[in-house]
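Might you be able to review the protein record set out just below?
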Amino acid sequence: MTDHIIIRGARENNLKGVSLEIPKHQITVFTGVSGSGKSSLVLDTIAAKSRRELNDTFPSFVQQYLPKYGRPHVDAIENLPIAIVIDQKKPAQNSRSTVATYIDIAALLRLLFSRVGQPFVGYAESFSFNHPEGSCPRCSGLGEIRELDIHKLVDFDKSLNDEDTIHYIAFGKGGWRWIRYAHSGLFDLDKKIKDYTPEELDLFLNSPQIRLKKPPANWPKSAKYEGLIPRMYRSIINSEEGLLHAAVLNPMLNMGVCPDCGGTRVNERVRSCKIDGINIADACAMSITRLNRWVQSLTSPLAVDIKAAIGARLTALEEIGLGYLSLDRGVGTLSGGEAQRCKIAKYINSSLADVLYVLDEPSTGLHDHDIERMKHSVRRLRDAGNTVLLVEHHKEMIALADHVVDMGPGPGSRGGQIVFEGTYDQLRHSGTTTGMMLSRRGDFKARPRTVTETFALRHASLHNLKDIDIDLPLGVLTAVAGVAGSGKSSLMECFRRDYPGQVVYISQKNIGVSLRSTPATYMDVAPDIRKRFARAHKLKEQYFTFNGKGGCPVCGGKGMVISEMAFMDNIETTCEACGGLRYSREALQYQVDGLNIAQVMDLSVRRASEHFAGTPIEAKLRPLLLVGLDYLHLNQALSTLSGGELQRMKLASYLQPYTQPMDAGGQRAVFVIDEPTDGLHLKDVRHLIDLFEQMVDAGNTLYVVEHNTDVIRAADQVIELGPGAGEQGGTVTYAGTPRGMLDCPVSVTARYL
């Protein structure tokens, strides 16, 4: 059966020996509750196997430089095409990456201006802000200046012989950077900086690189002396080190738009070269929609081929709903959904066929209006002769499927099986959790809360907001709606900046995961559990941590032994000494309430809450119960959790002080939560809505930035921004109850409710 991808005996993470046949050249959607095994099957098994097999075709020397993919636990996979994974990972933060560089349009634009622009100022690379010929000399092509506040770096009331006179790495007394000043022989090391003569101070702070005429014996022979300020700019502020140690450095810098280039990153010479009055900086500042129109209007015969190449890329971005982006926008400001759509647009014009495209929740961050465009793009990938696998929760994206695989029946250890295979219509009548949720009709909240208090936000003009005046409701659940890029997050940022009380902001940013991070460490219950064991047996706490003296001496507390195989993949095996429990034999011999430390850590959240009833441990675990993660084990590595589980884990970590009664030390706050339903099954969304209701009943205010129509219908108030994205957005199109939105003619969201 070469027209099917055949999987036999998949056991990755929670998969229970899954076998199935996936039709090629069709769209197959994998559904199921968060944590049911969808990603384990699609990404960690099928895609990982394909990428490993592809890497194996390269010479061993090349393989050591390629990304490594774990060896999936599966008996066999047959008829597997080459896989391209389009996931939601945000691009790496890099101040030199823009939308133009990310989607490979920058080089074409540079070529266009070098051939067609007047006057001629150089070849294509001369137009790059990453090239010395094109970059603004003042900001080095960053578009912003980072000017050093010398008084935040240097304590002028101290001498070079005092501790922490220069507040940066290796400038402390005895440090290798300190030596370049202390051993220069130019300064009295016991003299306070403020007492230096003007000449000494200028030499200390501003001197260019110079050779010392009569250096002391301990001065390095080949070294040059350099003043503190030029040295900071040359080797730290304008280098990779500054990015690496941004947390230490940034408080010492005054940030702002570069006054020489106006934030365009390129120098005056480059900006002087124009096509029909437009220079390359103007072109990059346009929205993709406007830029496409301008490019197509060019009449120069030299522009014909370049125009077609740029137009194809820009049109693909427009069709997928990213026409509002500008090419000069920093990649770090893109949401995971925007970055993912950029990748999809890149492949739409590809002439490759018989490829396996794996998309991880492409509906994330999309309004239902944009979902239509996404569906069109996914169909185009399939119709070009490819196989498409989607991990999805959105009703409309599931309906797109030629074939559906529903995983379950539950999350975690209760999942890992196929509970349904067939068409979308068959799924709706299948009786599975997903089927029942898809066939259920969403209703508006019967009795929305009455707004009795508001916060007056005036002249909100951040990003694309058009001088908005609005009274934001307090004490209720408010959904902030609108298409992607309409200004929802910008409005909430203005509110957070101006609101005088406490605002708890829960962003979309992923939590850090590693082999050693677990629910017990993340929710901060591990120290409390160790304390109980230490007190009971009169020992130090470190004897009960696998990251310290309590760790297995063979595996170092990892629970597995990693064998390095040079240029081949590392081999991971369960540690025979501790059986994967992570703890030493000594630590395991102590018990409290009939359980040793490993047995306690292996409890599920629900069982641990019952075991520690009435203690601070139970209080810290309560938020995990509220967000529906009661099935996780305390010692489960966070690296094994799905995106939806990690999202709820992060939400739970913020809730702890706000889920207790006021008389038990509970607190009240205003919450701004950015797209909390990302990665969540329809059933988990209902669970989250119930939690939000409890939080508002307890006296909290919630603003939920959301596209999910179930959340919008369940809100007390809705604020919609729009009507479009980017330049077409930034105004309030509706404010009121969700049901009232149905009568608003300009609302984009209303038709999907």
In short: The chain has a mean pLDDT of 90. DSSP finds 29 helices and 23 strands in the chain. The first strand starts at residue 4 and ends at 10.
